[in-house]
Amino acid sequence: MKPVKVGLLGLGTVGTGVVRIVEGHQEDLSNQVGSPIEIAQILVKDRAKARNISVDPSKLTEDPWDIVRNPGIDVIVEVMGGVALTKEYILEALERGKHVVTANKDLMAMHGQEILAKARDKGCDVLYEASVAGGIPIIRTLIEGFSSDRITKIMGIVNGTTNYILTKMSQEGAAYADVLKEAQELGYAEADPTSDVEGLDAARKMTILSSLGFRANVSLDNVSAKGISGVTQEDIQYAKRLGYEVKLLGIAERQDDTISVSVQPTMIKRSHPIASVNGVFNAVYVHGEAVGETMFYGAGAGELPTATSIVADLVAVIKNMKLGVNGRQAQLSYNVMKLKTDEQIASKFFLLLHVEDRAGVLAQIAQVFSNCDVSIESVMQPSTPNQSSTEIIIITHEASKAAMNQVLQAFESQNSIRKIKSVYRVEG
Ligand SMILES: NC(=O)c1ccc[n+]([C@@H]2O[C@H](COP(=O)([O-])OP(=O)(O)OC[C@H]3O[C@@H](n4cnc5c(N)ncnc54)[C@H](OP(=O)(O)O)[C@@H]3O)[C@@H](O)[C@H]2O)c1
């Protein structure tokens, strides 16, 4: 039977996994799709580079157009990364009627709508399961599994590097800078970790998840992002004393036709299932009006977990080819949503204040909260003997972000408050 021919753009970590799975599971895969799958050509930057997989050297090329313009190639699998060149290759491949599978969250978060529109016009599939939470089939779940429900909340640990760092800080009491260095040595963090630790990578993934979950056009600019570089060991220890873990959470919420999407270090109640997701693992919690709470857990990256999602997408594309229904599932956003204002975004908050240690200060603080219409759930004052200042920890009831900002502004002008040390969103 005639094989389906795949052009693979990239033979790095993920590309190698794709070759291994397509070759290792060939019999099973061809039984599922009704024909063999052949990786016919592979784009690399350097053909002479030593590789930890053996491939037929005649399949390797350094010229992307060899593959993208090859009429014999049916499907392009893009695992080279980057945005500008990759977008150019993918649009050209779609123009020529080739289907595309990609693991590229940067590309899909920034140009997903344009690429999906092109795919629809050309009757092609573009599938990108591996772009968020590597081995967890969350994209297919949001598109298909929840097609009958209205999703109201998505909370994700979608960046393994930051989850590894926060887990180590929590379990071993280590300082942020030390754990980051160790993560870099182990290859869990990049030499330039900015995109991970400042929450940008998670923001891109939340752009994709919220667009699909809310069936709305969410752009990267709509997602506010704060990373973990300001999280201290002190914050983590106080969180633990109060029954919380600190996690970098992407949180997307919908109410009627308003949404908010953000990424921030969050204190999450230890009893919430996402609080126990540790190390480099990822998890996505989804709340639907009808289904209630669900959660999906697994490897967020790595050669074989990521390749599993890519090859599953490849199988879906080939099944569509056999049925002649490619391009029917391009997910274009049909809901018009407004971004929530700060008055509409509500959560509980944790505050750690450094204050003057004298009678009446607590009453002043309580007055500020009351003036701003924020009610307090609990107050803790750890003992700090023989000092002129002390720490106060406050957890609020649910309050709007706008009201909380008013509280913080009022504290700035109070002499008795020496420093606002930390502010966290609280969930669970
Ligand atoms: N690694 C993961 O666990 C993971 C998980 C989910 C998603 N992803 C996404 O998957 C993609 C690939 O990641 P990766 O970790 O496999 O990357 P990688 O190990 O750096 O591999 C990139 C591959 O693409 C080739 N390449 C890069 N730029 C090229 C260019 N301009 N022309 C020709 N070839 C080029 C490289 O060629 P050479 O081999 O010759 O250098 C290499 O084979 C990225 O979009 C990433 O975000 C990765």
TrEMBL record:
Cross-referenced SUPFAM superfamilies: ACT-like, Glyceraldehyde-3-phosphate dehydrogenase-like, C-terminal domain, NAD(P)-binding Rossmann-fold domains
Catalytic activity: L-homoserine + NADP(+) = L-aspartate 4-semialdehyde + NADPH + H(+)
Ligand binding (NADPH): 105
InterPro entries recorded: ACT-like_dom_sf, ACT_dom, Asp/hSer_DH_NAD-bd, HDH, HDH_cat, HDH_CS, NAD(P)-bd_dom_sf
Active site, per annotation: 205 (proton donor)
Annotated binding of NADP(+), by residue: 9-16
Pathway assignment: Amino-acid biosynthesis; L-methionine biosynthesis via de novo pathway; L-homoserine from L-aspartate: step 3/3; Amino-acid biosynthesis; L-threonine biosynthesis; L-threonine from L-aspartate: step 3/5
GO molecular function: homoserine dehydrogenase activity; metal ion binding; NADP binding
Location of the ACT domain: 350-425
Cofactor: a metal cation
Key words, A-Z: Amino-acid biosynthesis, Metal-binding, Methionine biosynthesis, NAD, NADP, Oxidoreductase, Sodium, Threonine biosynthesis
PROSITE patterns attached to this UniProt entry: ACT (PS51671), HOMOSER_DHGENASE (PS01042)
Entry binding sites for L-homoserine: 190
GO biological process: methionine biosynthetic process; threonine biosynthetic process
Gene3D superfamilies: 3.30.70.260, Dihydrodipicolinate Reductase, domain 2, NAD(P)-binding Rossmann-like Domain
Source species, domain of life: Bacteria
E.C. designation(s): 1.1.1.3
Record-stated family: Belongs to the homoserine dehydrogenase family.
NCBIfam families on file: PRK06349.1 (NF004976)
Stated name of the protein: Homoserine dehydrogenase
Organism: Cohnella cholangitidis
